[in-house]
Amino acid sequence: MRRQSASIIQQVLRISYRYQPLHFKSPSTTPIVRRHKSTMPAKVDTTELPARTTGAAAQLAAAHSAEHPLKLYGGWFCPFVQRSWIVLHEKRIPHQYVEINPYNKEPEFLALNPRGLVPTLAVPVDDEKKGKKRRPLYESAVICEYLNEAYDDESKYGPGLLPKDAYERARCRLWIDHISNKIIPGFYRFIQHTPEKEYSIEEARANFLGHIKTLVQEMLDNETDGEENGPWFLGQTFSLVDVMLAPWAKRLFLIDHYKPGGLGIPAAGQASGDEEKVWARWRKWFDAITARQSVKDTWSDDEQYIAAYKRYAEDTTQSEVAKATRKGERLP
User: Fold this and answer.
1) Which of 50, 192, 256, 287 has its CA 20 to 30 A from that of 160?
2) Alpha-carbon span 244 to 240, nearest angstrom
3) Are 99 and 74 a contacting pair, CB within 8 Å?
4) CA–CA distance from 212 to each of 180, 228, 279, 309 (Å)?
5) Does an H or E element contain 310, and which?
6) Are 199 and 188 in contact (CB under 8 A)?
7) What is the DSSP string of 180-239?
8) Phi, psi of 26 (to 5 degrees)
9) Which pTM value belongs to this model?
């Protein structure tokens, strides 16, 4: 029997997340992702970091470097960019991927988006869809839903990433909201913990893992007894819910790398009862998402992310996400 969780959030919210990028000394590639009404250029940090994609992500970027009317402007280390890139990959949507150089933003890009925000999707809106006229979309969740809706011919672009059933589609959006408003802020609170904080690292860990457990319990509550259930949020069906969390699932190793005591998820057999069921289901999802081809292909070498997130682990970064986390405010 299908049981609906009593923990479903009571209202559907528009997910709207922005990301403040890193700034590289090498004038190659980097993202910028904040949104404000002002059209003044977004501030960027000046810490030296690798300035281009590597590994599988470099191959994917090269494969989509040719001119195309649909353009994704992004940066290799930004998880919000990775969301959009995963959807483009999953739906096999022809596009051009463009890394943004903060020292030398192309006039074409700044004309489209004066603040230089990423991810930015340049959408062709001329009648012929040749890119003679483009309009921008900014937020990662908005971009992902747009791509899913605009490229809905399953013979060309594969299955949709949201259910056709209206209730199930709304339920997915509720849990996307949980990911964006609970799990992701918990990730930054955890990785930015330092001994000087008013809260302990144990509290940060418990808070973060508690939000993951809430999501996983929703998966369990909606499984069908006696049937083989798939690894995804919707069982056998991969969806935008999985996409929304995938970039942070890939980044969990950074907590093990930087934080005393690591992530703290019990290994198989170390928990008991309902706790063991929850973490077994999590491992099933985690193993599937990290092995997903679209996730692997949009990922640079691990060392790149270790360098990029060092300032988060030390809580010295001045990104808008980091500053909101320090203040205990909603992420911008």
Assistant:
1) 287
2) 6
3) yes
4) 12, 23, 10, 21
5) helix 310-314
6) no
7) IIIIHHHHHHHHT--TTSSS-HHHHHHHHHHHHHHHHHHHHHTSPTTS---SBTBBTB--
8) -80, 125
9) 0.83
Among 71, 69, 49, which residue's Cα sits nearest to residue 61? 71
- Euclidean distance between CA atoms 148 and 203, whole angstroms: 37
Sequence-distant (≥ 6) Cβ neighbours of residue 114 within 8 angstroms: 39, 41
Question: Two tokens at 242?
Answer: 């999985």
pLDDT mean by block of 10 residues, the chain; 332 residues: 42 37 37 39 48 92 96 92 98 95 74 83 86 88 97 96 98 98 97 95 97 98 86 97 98 97 94 93 98 98 94 86 82 71
Active site residues: 78
How far apart, in Å, are the Cα atoms of 100 and each of 88, 108, 141, 166, 236? 18, 12, 20, 37, 36
Among the listed residues 111, 99, 98, 53, the one whose alpha carbon sits nearest the alpha carbon of residue 297? 53
Whether residue 57 contacts residue 297, with contact meaning beta carbons closer than 8 Å, is answered with yes
DSSP element (H, E) containing 11: none
**DSSP structure string for 132-191:** SSEEEE--HHHHHHHHHHHS--HHHH-S-SS-SSHHHHHHHHHHHHHIIIIIHHHHHHHH
**Cα–Cα distance measured from residue 273 to residue 123, given in angstroms and rounded to the nearest whole number:** 50
**Would you mind telling me the total number of residues written for the chain in this entry?**
332
* Secondary element (H or E) of residue 294: helix 293-297
State which amino acid sits at residue 27: P
